[in-house]
Amino acid sequence: MSQIMIELANVTKIFGQGEKRVVALDNVSLKIKKGEIFGIIGLSGAGKSTLIRCINKLEVPQAGTITIAGQEITRLKGKELRKTRRKIGMIFQHFNLLSSRTVYGNIAFPLEIAGVKRSEIKERVLSLIDLVGLSDKISAYPAELSGGQKQRVGIARALASNPEVLLCDEATSALDPETTKSILGLLQDVNQRFNLTIVLITHQMNVIKEICDTVAVIEDGRIVEQGPVVEVFARPRTPAARRFMKSVLPTEIPAEIQERALRMDDRKQGGKTVRISFVGDVAGEPVISSLIQKFQVDVNILYANLDYIKNTPFGSLIIDLMGENQKIEAAMEFLKDRGLELEVLNGGVEPTA
Amino acid sequence: MVWNLLLRALWETLYMVGASLVLSALVGVPLGIVLVITEPRHIKPAPLIHKVLSTIINIGRSLPFIILLVAIIPFTRWLVGTSIGTTGAIVPLTVSAIPFVARVVETALLEIDRGVIEAAQAMGASTSQIITKVMIPEAVPGLILGLTMVAVNLIGYSAMAGAVGGGGLGDLSIRYGYQRFRGDIMFFTVVILVAIVQGLQSCGSWLAARLNRR
Lengths: 353, 214
Ligand SMILES: Nc1ncnc2c1ncn2[C@@H]1O[C@H](COP(=O)(O)OP(=O)(O)OP(=O)(O)O)[C@@H](O)[C@H]1O
Ligand SMILES: [Mg+2]
Known about the structure:
The structure holds two protein chains of two kinds.
Chain A: E1 4-15, E2 22-33, E3 37-41, H1 48-55, E4 63-68, E5 71-72, H2 78-85, E6 88-92, H3 103-113, H4 118-131, H5 147-159, E7 165-169, H6 177-194, E8 197-202, H7 205-211, E9 214-219, E10 222-228, H8 229-234, H9 239-248, H10 255-267, E11 272-279, H11 287-295, E12 298-309, E13 312-322, H12 325-337, E14 341-344
Chain B: H1 2-37, H2 47-62, H3 65-71, H4 73-80, H5 85-110, H6 114-122, H7 127-160, H8 169-178, H9 183-211
Helix pairs in contact in B: 1-2, 1-5, 1-7, 1-8, 2-5, 4-5, 5-7, 6-7, 7-9, 8-9
Bound molecules: adenosine-5'-triphosphate and magnesium ion.
Magnesium ion binds next to α1 of chain A.
């Protein structure tokens, strides 16, 4: 598991010159382990596609090196590059199937260009069609398929030459939520079945939450944070990552609650509105009842949200803490000691005692 | 007598058009392919080759056929030994159709989704594999429609080729219908020409639709 499959070291990619100059990737370094599902998330224009396209040299970076299974792809050219690309499957947002070929013909394509024997091609294609569950569509043309079915063909085609790496460029962005789920399930299945390393870029939080082990957040061509999905999503460390999480998480504080917290300031009656974020085991602990019993503060729950990332619960709770200021402070210390992240949404009244 | 004349002229027209279509495709299709793949950000970017080729093709297309016909007489004579007759007419017809074919092929190939070509590149396809296994098969309907258009144009030009003694239906209708006041021959040649053009276009459109999987 800890073997490195893909390594990017100080990769920089610049498009255009002068006025039109865009630094799409700015000194990006990443390590992707063998067999993991590595997600890269970022807003539109952050440089996700550029990053993934550098991995199979569809884009050539101006600086830095990219190494795949010990081979430096950034140095390869011509025949050698083509040979290495056969070990890197890729699927696309708009599927990019050959419209003139049937499902069978599309999946056979990478094998044909690799010069595989006809009989072997047939055997391999049939087993792949079976794997992706399209046995009844074998002679259909792409125009006759649904989006989900097209992506299944794309996945089968990408797997045809037994790649070690699968690159997914917004593979589910053109699909509805239901179909997205089934495609993600298929990706997870092939990841486990073939110990395939998957690099997946997306702007959809759900995709990362659903199947990724590790995530990197990219902003303006820079990786602002990376780590295990749960860590990064629930406790972003850098301001940039936090900003990004705020922009994509629909579970941010509802506007009414924020307003209410501020109004509480006006009433000058003391108390604080606090957001508690938690990850993992603490979610099961009876912190709120201990709070009331031990510190004699009143707790008013305004908002609660619980979500799971790969079986790890995480979420947030917004509460009003009311009572003497000292007790409120002590209660907040207690919560912090339990490993919870606290954020005061209003100032409350300055302690007078 | 009239039928013999018509039949012979029909054959000459088909021969001139067919031969020059095939010959111009042999040169024009590769030129069209080069034109496309040398574009910036295509599979073999080469701005200089692209620019030079594009300019030559534009010059070729802007020359009126009747001028080209006369201007290349020495070349025709050098190439096929004669500048007159049906065979002599094939050379200018071919030369004039080459740039046309190149543009028609370019248009058809540029219509292909770039993503599909990119997918083939990502799979490790070579330039020649991308051309033969992706670009051409994907562009078949567009290529058929384009070449149909070239053929229809060649029929029109072949009438002018009568001017160098190339024969054919156009020539017949001028020599008999116009110069000798044979209204019946004029009528029949026109009917046959219209029928050929109609038939050709219908076949082309039908085939293109038939092969279109998009
Ligand atoms: N071929 C190109 N020429 C010029 N600029 C480009 C090119 N490709 C990408 N860029 C620029 O590089 C930046 C990163 O683009 P990229 O496509 O990698 O973003 P992205 O994160 O994939 O966005 P999206 O989510 O919209 O697909 C953008 O500012 C884009 O305009
Ligand atoms: Mg993109």
